[in-house]
Design a protein that fits this description.
Number of domains: 3
Largest sheet: 2 strands, antiparallel
Helix content: over 70%
Mean pLDDT: 77
Oligomer: single chain
Distance between the termini: 29 Å
Number of helices: 8
Radius of gyration: 27 Å
Strand content: under 5%
Length: 157
């Protein structure tokens, strides 16, 4: 989530809370205390997006803590090289990391979905019994193959 999205979500929650609480609509909370929300938002803006160095330092700190506790030694594949996924070397360099992230998240890339749809359309074409069904399946298959070819060509560039 980006810094902007986090601030936007905070503002939306704040507005919803103000709509539910009529006293908050006048800028007070509870016993006439001034609303502290603007000050809180100002603090959030300063602390929302830590620099890359801070994130790296935090990761290093957490790894050092885990190593001290002995959790890293228990990890599967500790002190062994990472196994390469099937097709890693055949995947273009510029899409390796995004595809790896999609695979880890369980999301199928759009190209794979297009290939699956193409297989379904080919089966539908083979099972077509009338000329009308055949023409419709051929037209859908031609459109899909064009979209797939354009998508694959854009990946090669």
């Amino acid at each position: 989530m980006s810094k902007f999205d986090s601030i936007k979500a905070t503002l939306l929650r704040w507005r919803a809370a103000r709509r539910r609480d009529p006293e908050a609509a006048q800028g007070t909370t509870g016993a006439g205390k001034p609303d502290a929300q603007p000050a809180w938002l100002a603090r959030q803006r300063r602390t929302l997006a830590p620099g890359v160095r801070q994130v790296d330092d935090e990761i290093a700190r957490q790894l050092a803590d885990a190593e001290r506790r002995g959790e890293l030694r228990k990890a599967q594949g500790f002190s062994r090289p990472l196994a390469e996924d099937a097709g890693w070397q055949q995947t273009p360099d510029e899409v390796r990391l995004p595809f790896k992230m999609l695979k880890s998240a369980g999301i199928v890339p759009h190209e794979v979905e297009l290939l699956r749809n193409r297989a379904v359309l080919r089966e539908r074409l083979a099972a077509a019994t009338t000329d009308d069904e055949t023409r419709q399946a051929q037209a859908a298959l031609a459109d899909l193959e064009l979209a797939l070819a354009l998508r694959m060509e854009s990946m090669r560039r």
